[in-house]
Description:
Blueprint: H1 2-9, E1 19-26, E2 29-38, E3 49-57, H2 66-80, E4 85-88, H3 95-103
Parallel strand pairs: 3-4
Antiparallel strand pairs: 1-2, 2-3
Amino acid sequence: MARRSVAAQFPEGRVPPGQHVFHIVHDGRRVGYLWLGEAASRGGDGGVQWWVWDVLVDESARGRGLGRGTMLRAERFARENGADELGLSVFGFNTGAQRLYASLGYETTSIKMSKRLD
């Protein structure tokens, strides 16, 4: 599903204007990636909002501060490129990521809920 999504978002492997994809490198090897860029809508206060569309650190490289470092660099990059706000989505089951984002000052702005109907 992720491959189909990336293929749809990046036709012919090209990153569209306003979007940025970075490799996360640790000890000389790629261990993940970050995709962020301009959002289609304005931020909560009408400012320029950017969005973390996807971020992934390989499971084998987790627990080393790479997620935190990546997010701090993402914030700096977005700010340097005109963003007033940086948003993201996180799955409800991903409590580790939720704790990381909360520790960095991110606040919950919406909650999506569902129920399995048997």
